[in-house]
Amino acid sequence: MGNIVATDISKEYFNRRYKKREKLDTGSIFGATIPVLEGVDFEIESGEMVCFLGPSGCGKSTLLRIIAGFEEQSSGILTIDDKPVTGASSSNIFVFQHSGLLPWMTVQENVELGLRNMKDLEKKEAEIMDYIEMVELEGFEHHYPYQLSGGMQRRAELARALAVNPEILIMDEPFSGLDFLTHMKMREEVVNMHEFLGKTILIVTHDIDDALSMGDRVIVFSSRPATIKLNQKLDFPHPRYIRQEDSELSVLRDELFLMLGVNYAV
């Protein structure tokens, strides 16, 4: 489960500006459309971790929202497990860029939201602790979000998302704002979690090293209106040493930097 097929996906937004910018402005662009995605085609196999790269504002997050069912494409067909996406579903969980924890709830209570329909209270308590332990937050289950570091908040969000047992986990820049060491630790935890659970995971990132270190596949978008410039399978074992001189990953890293407009990769 968790197979995603996008066929000729395009997305446009209406420009709602109708006031003239200056007196000599005789034109009106009210009602004109702004193209964001254009003719996007790909297939993601069940259980893959796929990292999306591209310039800021090119439409990566828009695509994730379409996959999650929060938005509808302007044209094209998007299917998950051979069924068209018609709206949001508990099978597709979105972890947003900024913290989505409910501040008046403890870690345990936040995680419990994903299991709120479970009738067996003893089993529910055990599962809540399983997910808290999976993200290494045992001992902090009764803490509120403001009492946690940024990295711990992200781990609590992961535990809450996993508690729903989704087929697809969608993450929009999940490591943004974290310090370097926490970023590295979170990256490692997501890779380990993916190998353990085997879920389909989609990640938007601006970090090429994240994409190469984590992904089973990397998809690179052009600037807006976004088309796919590269759809590359990464058949490399974990852990990956991407800066090893002249390795395939190192060569690909340099190519990705060039593709995204950076002439010298540091």
Task: List its traits.
alpha/beta; Rossmann fold; 6-stranded mixed β-sheet
Structural features, described:
- This protein has 266 residues and is of the alpha/beta class.
- It folds into two domains: 1-20 and 31-91 and 169-266, Rossmann fold (3-Layer(aba) Sandwich); 101-165, no CATH class.
- It contains seven helices and ten strands.
- The chain has helices at residues 60-68, 107-112, 121-134, 150-163, 180-197, 208-214, 248-259, and strands at residues 4-14, 33-44, 49-53, 75-80, 83-84, 92-95, 168-172, 200-204, 217-221, 228-233.
- The strands form two sheets. A six-stranded mixed sheet has the order 6-7-8-3-9-10, with helices on both faces.
- Helix 5 (180-197) links the parallel strand 7 (168-172) and strand 8 (200-204).
- The two termini are 38 Å apart.
- The model has no long low-confidence stretch (mean pLDDT 87).
Secondary structure topology:
Elements lengths: L3 E11 L18 E12 L4 E5 L6 H9 L6 E6 L2 E2 L7 E4 L11 H6 L8 H14 L15 H14 L4 E5 L7 H18 L2 E5 L3 H7 L2 E5 L6 E6 L14 H12 L7
Parallel strand pairs: 3-8, 3-9, 6-7, 7-8
Antiparallel strand pairs: 1-2, 1-4, 4-5, 9-10
What's the overall average pLDDT, rounded?
Answer: 87
CATH class of the largest domain: Alpha Beta
Shape: globular
Question: How would you spell out the order of helices and strands?
Answer: EEEHEEEHHHEHEHEEH
As for the CATH topology of the largest domain, it is Rossmann fold
So how many helices?
A: 7
Fraction of helical residues: 25-40%
Main sheet summary: 6 strands, mixed
Helix/strand structural class: alpha/beta
Q: What is the percentage of strand-forming residues?
A: 15-25%
Strand order of the largest sheet: 6-7-8-3-9-10
Spatial separation of the terminal alpha carbons: 38 Å
Low-confidence stretches: none
How many structurally independent domains?
A: 2
CATH superfamily of the largest domain: P-loop containing nucleotide triphosphate hydrolases
Q: Judging by the overall fold, what is the CATH architecture of the largest domain?
A: 3-Layer(aba) Sandwich
